[in-house]
Design a protein that fits this description.
three-stranded mixed β-sheet, mainly alpha, 3 domains, Tesmin/TSO1-like CXC domain-containing protein
């Protein structure tokens, strides 16, 4: 929401703040698209994320309804957002638009246009949940309609990544694709078409997969390892690009070869000098050094496989079809998610909980031959890599 200024009710906000902004944008553009989220009532990948952010207080959105004092808290409630989007869409549709202008507004699965447009097959029906991908649907439609210069306003990094991929995919019919990113003093313009050109076709296509695997809203991050560090690892290990590309467009499975290549990528992310290819081996080595906390260790191979599945579903199936209005998605339960009531939760690993599978974790300090004082022998256990003898006794 824009700052309400002196507005006290939703109608005042619409009349004094929102509509004037839309009119000012239409004055300099030949087409303006308003794209809203359309959250699923059940089976939403982001339901858990929204729940973690808090649900907010439910407030009905009506013309005479008072504006919330805390807009962020208000927007945390999906029902509030849905009613607000619907209310603002109705207000916008009452605008008188010049014949040379086009106003396109999402209305759940439908699309509304001013002046009325006969053919909206590229836009509706649309079953995308997030505005992130809906923006790509609208951008692709604008290109089909002959618009060669596009500007997208966003505060979401996901949109930037998708815009770069779209700029690469539609480079033949696109001159410029700009994004105005951020708000207030932090707002800046990003040239997605220039980034796509600098990256090249393969890396531009692989970028959404890289972004998902290294952490996005629906996929966990590798603790302590930034996007910048992951990018440097990609540059140092360009062989992983092939693995990224294999997951970039509706993958049907997760091949062992792809998993092995991505495992090597994660190994290098955690230890650039390592020569091993198995995250389990690296995990053991780093753990035995006793200088890293558990949070700083790489995931097990079982956990990594589930992580990659969720990333492949997000990047390959959802983002990989971002420019298509009505998409067919496989069950997320086949790609690292599980049902929990009406909601979906990520499967973190297929291994048993360590507290249930490992009752004792003992190591000894004997550096040579372990004798009667060896703590491992006293517990009737074999020495391991955690011991000072490194299990060689």
């Amino acid at each position: 929401m824009f700052k309400p200024g002196g507005s006290r009710v939703f109608q005042e906000y619409s009349t004094a703040v929102f509509i004037p902004y839309i009119e000012s944008q239409l004055e300099y553009q030949s087409r303006l698209d308003l794209v809203w989220d359309c959250y699923l009532k059940s089976g939403s990948l982001k339901a858990t994320v929204r729940c973690n952010h808090g649900k907010g207080i439910r407030r009905r959105v009506t013309a005479s309804g008072p504006l919330p004092s805390n807009c962020q808290n208000f927007l945390r409630n999906s029902d509030n957002k849905e009613e607000l989007f619907s209310f603002l869409s109705e207000q916008v549709m009452q605008l008188v638009v010049k014949e040379s202008k086009q106003l396109v507004v999402t209305g759940k699965k439908r699309v509304l246009t001013v002046p009325p447009r006969k053919d909206t097959a590229n836009l509706a029906p649309c079953n995308h949940e997030e505005a992130d991908t809906r923006m790509m649907v609208h951008a692709a439609d604008a290109l089909e309609c002959g618009h060669r210069r596009i500007l997208i306003r966003t505060v979401d990094t996901d949109v930037v990544v998708l815009a770069v991929a779209l700029a690469n995919e539609r480079s033949e019919v696109l001159d410029e694709l700009w994004l105005t990113f951020g708000t207030g003093k932090n707002r800046r313009y990003i040239a997605a078409h220039q980034i796509a050109k600098a990256l090249g076709p393969e890396n531009s296509r692989a970028l959404p997969v890289f972004h998902a695997i290294t952490g996005c809203v629906t996929v966990s991050v590798f603790a302590g390892h930034s996007k910048k560090a992951a990018w440097a690892t990609w540059n140092a290990f360009p062989e992983v690009t092939t693995a990224f590309l294999s997951l970039a467009s509706t993958p049907s499975e997760l091949p062992d070869g792809v998993l092995s290549t991505l495992a090597r990528f994660i190994v290098l992310l955690y230890d650039r000098t390592s020569t091993c290819c198995d995250v389990n081996v690296l995990r053991k080595k780093l753990f035995s050094r006793k200088s890293r906390s558990l949070e700083d260790l790489p995931p097990t191979r079982a956990a990594l496989e589930q992580h990659i599945k969720t990333a492949a579903y997000q990047a390959g199936h959802i983002w990989g079809q971002a420019a298509i209005a009505f998409v067919s998605l496989p069950s997320p339960c086949d790609w690292g998610w599980m049902k929990s009531g009406d909601e979906l939760e990520p499967i973190w690993t297929t291994l048993s909980d360590v507290s249930k599978s490992c009752h004792e974790l003992i190591s000894c300090g004997s550096r040579k031959h372990c004798g009667g004082k060896c703590g491992c022998k006293k517990a009737a256990l074999k020495c391991t890599g955690l011991c000072a003898c490194e299990g060689g006794c």
